[in-house]
Specification:
CATH class of the largest domain: Alpha Beta
Distance between the termini: 28 Å
Number of helices: 6
Helix content: 10-25%
Strand content: 35-45%
Order of helices and strands: EHEHEEEHEEEEEHEHEEEHEEEE
Largest sheet: 9 strands, mixed
Mean pLDDT: 95
Length: about 300
């Protein structure tokens, strides 16, 4: 069903401000921007009359794309994302030297949740990592893989997207059994790293990491024993919401198969009539905990 990753998307309040942050401050090197107000978008998102300003960002040499969206209509409210609340996402970039990135970004006024510390579980076991906040308070993680020897603090690649979920087993059945993602690792126990960065009173977690076919990109899932409340509202226009876009070989076959299993789609697949992905077909759907996903069939254009 799924043949790869197209992008991970995040909704912000002001695209221009966010592009300055993700480009000039964080260090994403290439962007393409466009206005999207064509009728097909209502079919893809399920939001009548919606219009957006969109920026696609990509690091030189990395196939993964981040899509940054500002809904100009309708204007969403704050999604209520926070570290440890159900539905809250984070996007992780790997850097060549975390201490250099921490010093550079701190000097630029970027707010970190805590100083860098070591991850003790999962695929990044032994890595150094830290969480920071973007201008809208969205969670961004930077990680330096164990054994890296860089010194500049530059971004190397987009490594994973993470979500907090209510029930890990339910989400794994959806992503692994229904969508075909591969389970790479699992963990259950205390997380000193999450206790440090999130200042959680109870850092007991059940976690899993899944890979997207034909990529090195991961989806990271945390089930916290005591998640923060209230849960995030991941409706697409809401600032702080996130969606994850998969490439598929046959979007209509995927749509029919999952619809027959009760998965809720925004509508039927629709054809893009403008922009960087003109001619491709796309559709949003909802997974456990209200997390949005998207299918895309076509040949996504590289960001230039």
């Amino acid at each position: 069903m799924i043949t790869g990753l197209f992008h991970t998307g995040m909704t912000v309040s002001n695209l221009e401000r966010s592009l300055t942050f993700y480009g000039n401050t964080l260090g994403i090197t290439r962007f393409h921007t466009q206005v999207a107000d064509q009728p097909y978008l209502a079919d893809v998102t399920g939001i009548p009359g919606c219009s957006l300003h969109i920026g696609f960002g990509q690091i030189e040499g990395d196939a993964s794309v981040v899509e940054i969206l500002e809904y100009t209509y309708p204007k969403g409210r704050r999604a209520g994302t926070q570290f440890g609340s159900v539905g809250s996402p984070h996007v992780c970039w790997e850097v060549d030297c975390l201490s250099a990135a921490y010093e550079r970004l701190g000097a630029a006024g970027v707010e970190f949740l805590a100083h860098p510390s070591m991850i003790g579980e999962g695929p990044c076991n032994g890595a150094q990592a830290a969480f920071l906040l973007d201008p809208d308070g969205l969670l961004i993680e930077l990680v330096e893989a164990a054994g890296r020897t860089g010194s500049t603090g530059r971004l190397v690649r987009m490594a994973h997207t993470g979500f907090v979920v209510v029930d890990l087993d339910v989400t794994l059945r959806f992503l692994h059994e229904r969508l075909g993602l591969f389970i790479e690792d699992r963990y259950e126990g205390e997380s000193g790293y999450l206790r440090h960065v999130g200042k959680l009173a109870d850092s007991s977690i059940r976690a899993a990491w899944l890979s997207v076919p034909n990529t090195k990109y991961l989806i990271e899932l945390w089930e916290l024993r005591s998640p923060r409340k209230p849960p995030a509202d991941m409706s697409p226009p809401n600032v702080g919401s996130n969606h994850f876009c998969f490439l598929v070989e046959d979007i209509w076959a995927a749509y029919r198969s999952l619809s027959n299993e009760g998965v809720k789609f925004a509508g039927e697949p629709a054809t893009s009539t403008a922009g960087i992905n003109k001619g491709g077909q796309a559709i949003y759907f909802v997974g456990p905990d209200g997390i949005r996903y998207e299918f895309f069939q076509g040949r996504p254009t590289k960001v230039i």
